[in-house]
Task: inverse folding
């Protein structure tokens, strides 16, 4: 049977030492490929109760599973496929601090799955295949090369519809140590930016690409993506406008990513790649012969219940629309992937008792499909409408901002041309026999043109300023509504 195009896994991170010390509760249970989240709630009459949500995935990974075990069961088979010409994409989605970086890139004590893939690749590929790396980051819709001093990059679509990231460095690596050194340089560049540019890793998507070439022709590609923190997409109630705008961009890219994966699984002809910078640059990875692994990372801590639920719902939506064929293939793969017993995992990893296919209905309020499609964070309807309006306005502002910058540039060019005319005029007036009426008329014309240009730009600016103020008002309304709602709960 054909391998599934998409595998959706969820990984639970353990409580941190700090959380244990604070007495926080672990509210997530992994049983086979099922994740159960029990959220402590309080009713209006102050009685406490537990709300239970059950989700079923291709793989559910508990807190005892190491990166090596995860790699062996889910990623290693894909590495082999990459050598055989398949484009592989692995991405981690989840709240800040839920374990995305830990899974993808590792930390000082633990190796990430990209490193494990590299070890295998260097062992498996024949000498005729060369390996190279690119590593870049998307921050505020801008691309930065992590292997070249964070040079800003531009993504362009060529005549054949292929997206090319102009200037992206691709470093050829001959052995695993060289590979690790190169990626480490990129990780350091990301960390330095966090400290110096007031940037926060949870607000950027990091994309590490390993390219396999034979006689200079790309034959396979593996992309490991550490996404921005999913909760960042809901920064509507943030006080800083730029943070809200960044949040809207992150929200847009995560929703577009979900749409692209769904379209990919349904073999749709039209895939909405242009929906965001992230999906635009990943277009190539999602077309043709490709396979994707999504790892939703969740915290087990009760105070993160809301965010964990949102991640579980997002992952559930990604796999929900799977075609019957690919669903069968995924089930088959899940059985084949059963982890060897030497791994200290729950042994029901894949072939445990068959769990319910869909999520248990939330008992307090229902979400309809449209709501989940449009925002990541679920709120009651009224707030959602405000959020929708806010989102729409942010998109408008982003477009207007780009248009304003272009108009400003054109304005400067026009002013330079008129200033040249000004200078010529003055030179002519300094000539003997010049006619004062001509000079006055001409100067009047040039000045009127300049005033016209300034007025035009000013009115565009005025409109933009008005929309910024509207956004501020709308955000305040969202905040008020959000806090009122919290108070009621
Ligand atoms: N499965 C795990 N087992 C043990 N520790 C983990 C696990 N997942 C995450 N951690 C620890 O939790 C902390 C947060 O993880 P990590 O930095 O990977 O989060 P993140 O989702 O990448 O956050 P951000 O979006 O801010 O980059 C780290 O200290 C990490 O070592």
Result:
């Amino acid at each position: 049977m054909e391998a599934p195009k998409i595998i959706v896994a969820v990984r639970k991170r353990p409580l941190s030492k700090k959380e244990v010390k604070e007495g926080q509760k672990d509210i997530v249970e992994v049983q086979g490929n099922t994740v159960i989240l029990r959220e402590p709630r309080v009713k209006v009459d102050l009685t406490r109760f537990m709300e239970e949500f059950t989700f079923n995935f291709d793989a559910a990974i508990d807190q005892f599973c190491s990166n090596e075990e995860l790699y062996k069961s889910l990623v290693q088979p894909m590495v082999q496929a990459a050598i055989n010409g398949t484009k592989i994409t692995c991405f981690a989605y989840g709240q800040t601090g839920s374990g995305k970086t830990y899974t993808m890139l590792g930390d000082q004590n633990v190796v990430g799955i990209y490193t494990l893939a590299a070890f295998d690749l260097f062992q498996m590929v024949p000498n005729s295949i060369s390996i190279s790396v690119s590593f870049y980051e998307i921050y505020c819709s801008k691309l930065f090369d992590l292997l070249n001093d964070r040079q800003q990059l531009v993504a362009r679509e060529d005549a054949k519809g292929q997206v090319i990231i102009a200037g992206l460095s691709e470093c050829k690596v001959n052995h695993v140590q060289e590979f690790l050194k190169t990626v480490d340089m990129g990780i350091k560049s990301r960390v330095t930016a966090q400290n110096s540019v007031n940037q926060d890793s949870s607000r950027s998507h990091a994309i590490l690409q390993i390219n396999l070439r034979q006689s200079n022709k790309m034959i396979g590609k593996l992309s490991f993506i550490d996404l921005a923190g999913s909760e960042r997409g809901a920064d509507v109630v943030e006080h800083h406008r730029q943070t809200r705008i960044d949040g809207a961009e992150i929200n847009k890219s995560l929703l577009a990513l979900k749409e692209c994966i769904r379209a990919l699984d349904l073999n749709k002809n039209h895939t909405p790649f242009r929906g965001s910078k992230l999906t635009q640059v990943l277009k190539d990875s999602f077309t043709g012969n490709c396979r994707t692994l999504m790892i939703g990372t969740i915290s087990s801590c009760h105070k993160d219940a809301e965010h964990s639920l949102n991640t579980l719902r997002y992952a559930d939506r990604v796999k929900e629309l799977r075609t019957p064929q690919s669903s069968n293939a995924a089930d088959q793969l899940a059985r084949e992937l059963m982890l060897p017993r030497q791994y200290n995992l729950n042994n029901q990893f894949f072939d445990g008792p068959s769990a319910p296919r869909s999520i248990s209905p939330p008992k307090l309020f229902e979400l309809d499909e449209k709501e989940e499609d449009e925002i990541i964070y679920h709120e009651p309807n009224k707030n959602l409408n405000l959020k929708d309006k806010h989102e729409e306005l942010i998109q408008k502002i982003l477009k207007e901002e780009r248009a304003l910058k272009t108009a400003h540039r054109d304005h400067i060019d026009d002013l330079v041309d008129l200033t040249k005319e000004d200078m010529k005029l003055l030179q002519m007036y300094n000539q003997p026999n010049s006619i004062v009426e001509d000079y006055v008329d001409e100067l009047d014309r040039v000045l009127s043109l300049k005033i016209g240009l300034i007025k035009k730009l000013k009115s565009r600016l005025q409109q933009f300023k008005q929309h910024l103020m509207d956004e501020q008002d709308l955000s305040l309304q969202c905040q008020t509504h959000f806090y009122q709602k919290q108070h009621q709960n």
